[in-house]
Amino acid sequence: MAVLRLGVLSSHGGSNLQAIIDACKEGRLHARCCVVISNNSGSMALQRAKNEGVPNYHLSGKTHLSSQQLDQAIRDTLEKHRVNLVVLAGYMKLLGPLTVSHYQGRILNIHPGLLPRFGGKGMHGDKVHKAVLASGDGVTGVTIHLADEAYDHGPIIAQTQVPVFKDDSVESLRGRVLKREHEFYVETLQRIAEGDIELSGL
After folding, report:
1. Residue 111 a catalytic site member
2. What is the pLDDT of residues 132-170, one digit of tens each?
3. What's residue 67's pLDDT?
4. For residues 24 and 157, what is the distance between their CA atoms, to the nearest angstrom?
5. pLDDT digits over 71-126, tens only?
6. Where are the domains of the chain?
7. What value, to the nearest 5°, has the Cα angle with vertex 5 and ends 20 and 174?
8. Taking the CA atoms of the chain, what radius of gyration do you get in angstroms?
9. In what order do the strands lie in the sheet with 156-163?
10. Which of 95, 121, 125, 97 is closest to 111 using CA atoms?
């Protein structure tokens, strides 16, 4: 069983990143977090990486003038750290064509809902939970899919359901879904490490 070499991209809190790092340290995930990239210089994700001694970079429109330069910098940084699986963990930007083509079939994204419902541009975080509550659905969940150059697009590789209760608020539903996200990302990555889920190029 080969060790997954993960490159994690995150824009804000990085709680899924922390769950992955913890699972690696505890031996529950046969992987190594090799690099963290954020488009937000003040993100908690970068701070978490620093706290754990993981190489980390702020790469954004502020560090690179053109989208092409930024795309190349992201790809080159992942390559420099010999990443073989890219993990998007609350990353709010689309990846560019260079990075997507280089890591095609090896870029994972996590979504706090059951795609294809409640997905697409602008549908993230509490917007998803508000839409779920407004729909009256009795279940929501977490989706992990292969990412491409469109929001919440690409083949679904794993989904899990989370119950919605009648007295749920956005806050209570968010907490329940996020807790499952932390578990489910690690579970799914371990299934990839074990070969239970096969990805091209790994």
Report:
1. yes
2. 999 999 999 999 999 988 888 899 999 999 999 999 999
3. 96
4. 21
5. 999 999 999 999 999 999 999 999 999 999 999 999 999 999 999 999 988 899 89
6. 4-111+145-159+182-193
7. 25
8. 16
9. 56-58, 31-38, 4-9, 85-88, 107-111, 139-146, 156-163
10. 125
Please tell me the predicted confidence (pLDDT) of residue 122. Answer: 85
Q: Which fold has domain 4-111+145-159+182-193?
A: Rossmann fold (3.40.50)
| For range 157-184, the mean pLDDT | 97
Please return the burial class of 16, using the count of CB atoms within 10 Å of its CB with bins 0-12, 13-18 and 19+.
Answer: buried
Q: How far is CA 80 from CA 7, 40, 85, in A?
A: 11, 21, 13
Angle (CA) 95 71 195, round 5°: 50
Q: What is the pTM of this model?
A: 0.95
DSSP 9: E
CA-closest candidate to residue 10, choices 58, 54, 50: 58
Count of positions (residues) in the chain: 202
Q: Which two tokens stand for residue 128?
A: 């998803």
CA distances from 62 to 39, 40, 67, 150 (A): 9, 9, 11, 22
Task: Give the residue among 100, 111, 108, 119 at the shortest CA–CA distance from 197.
Answer: 108
DSSP annotation string for 156-186: EEEEEEEE--TT--HHHHHHHHHHHHHHHHH
Residues forming a β-bridge with 58: 38
The residue from 111, 124, 145, 182 that is catalytic is 111
